[in-house]
Amino acid sequence: xxxxxxxxxxxxxxxxxxxxxxxxxxxxxxxxxxxxxxxxxxxxxxxxxxxxxxxxxxxxxxxxxxxxxxxxxxxxxxxxxxxxxxxxxxxxxxxxxxxxxxxxxxxxxxxxxxxxxxxxxxxxxxxxxxxxxxxxxxxxxxxxxxxxxxxxxxxxxxxxxxxxxxxxxxxxxxxxxxxxxxxxxxxxxxxxxxxxxxxxxxxxxxxxxxxxxxxxxxxxxxxxxxxxxxxxxxxxxxxxxxxxxxxxxxxxxxxxxxxxxxxxxxxxxxxxxxxxxxxxxxxxxxxxxxxxxxxxxxxxxxxxxxxxxxxxxxxxxxxxxxxxxxxxxxxxxxxxxxxxxxxxxxxxxxxxxxxxxxxxxxxxxxxxxxxxxxxxxxxxxxxxxxxxxxxxxxxxxxxxxxxxxxxxxxxxxxxxxxxxxxxxxxxxxxxxxxxxxxxxxxxxxxxxxxxxxxxxxxxxxxxxxxxxxxxxxxxxxxxxxxxxxx
Length: 486
Hints:
By secondary structure, the protein is α/β, with parallel strands linked by helices. The chain has helices at 20-26, 38-49, 67-71, 83-96, 109-124, 141-144, 154-170, 190-193, 207-217, 225-228, 273-281, 296-309, 330-344, 354-367, 376-387, 399-404, 410-425, 432-439, 444-456, and strands at 4-9, 15-19, 28-31, 54-59, 74-77, 100-103, 134-138, 176-182, 198-201, 234-239, 243-251, 461-464, 469-474, 479-480, 484-485.
C-alpha cells in the first residue's frame, strides 16, 4: 500500500504529494484566514489518507461529520458525555484503532476546551502496546492552544494548552501525529506551532501573520506579500513530507462537503415591503425554539457503556420478595390509595408537617368509613410513595423499588422514589425545581446536598454531561433516567 497521497497540483499542473509516513514523524501546520480553504484542505487530506492510517478529528464546528457517511468514521458528540465517559471512549478508540470525529459544536468554548483536553490526554496516556500510528487533526487550533489568556478560566486554558503541547511535542513517540489548522498564527501558542515541520500557508492579510508565515516557509520578508495574494484553495507548502522548497499548490476536489455549507448566493424572497411586514407581524404561528437533535452514534455508545457498566452476574440478579400488603380488603386498600393520591395532588402538601398531614388523612378515612390500620411512621412512608406517584404498596411493578427503599430515611423517600421511578420508566431526570417541591423546600442548595447524600449512600449515581444535561442512575437496578438540562 502506497503511503503517498495527492493533495493537489502546482502551477504547472504536476501533482503535489504528501508522504503520510513522513507526516507521522514530522507533523503539519495549516494556516489561513477564514475563507482561505483550510477546511477543504483538511478534508482532502483526510479523504485521501482514510484507508492508510487511523484518523482522529477534533471538530469544533461539526464540519467533518459527513466523512462518516463515506469513510465510516465514528462520530462522537462531545456534548452527550461527561468526563469519565470521554476517557473510556478515547481509551477504546486508541485500543481498537477506530477513526473518529469528536464534534464539539454543541458546547460552549470552555466546555469544548475541557472536553478536547480530556480526550487528547487519554489518547496520549495510552499503554505502550497501544501506541499505534494515528493522524490527530485539530481544526481551529487557536481555540485549544491560545497564545494569550481570553474569556476562559486559567485552569481550563492550562489544561487545554498542556494537552495540545503533549500532542505536538511528545506525541510522535506515541504514534500521534498532530495536524493543526488555525486562522491566525499570532493567536496560536508558539510552543505548539513550533513543533510542526511541515507547513501549508493559505491567504492571510495581517502583517504579523504574514511575517510569521514567511519565517516558517524560509522566505524573505519582502516575499511575504505573495501570501496576501493567494486565491481561495491555494496554499504554499514546505516540509519533509511535502517539498524541500516552498511550492504553490491548488488543493484538489473532495468527495464530501460540510452539511452547513451554502454555495454561492441565494435569490431573495419576492415579497414586497407591506407583504413582508405582514409576514413578520401577523403570522399566527408561534415560532418554535430551535432544538438540537442528538446524533444516533452517541446514543448507541451510551447504551453500550451502560450495558457494560450495568452488567449484573446471573447469580446476583434475584428478584426481591414481594412485601405483604398492609391491608386485608381490596376495597380498603383502593380507598386508602385514593385518599393518598388526593392529598399528594394538593398544592404545597409537602411543605406541611407530617403530624398535620396524618391528622387530615385520618379524618378523610373516617369520612369514608375505613380504618387504614397504620401509625404516623407508616403514614410518612405511604404519603412519600404517593407523592412519588406510587400510592399502592401492592403494585407489582414497584416492588423492586419498595424493597430497595426499605432502608431509606422517611424524609428522603419521596425524592428517591421519584428519581427511581423516572429511571424505571426511562423518563427525563427530574429537575431541581421538581425535586424541591417533592422534598418540601425552596432551597436549591438543599437539593444539591440531598443528591450528594443519596450518592454517598450508593443509592444513586449522578452524571452531568458536557452539554450540561443531568441523568441519574440507580445502580442496584441497573437503570438510569433520560438526560435533561439540570
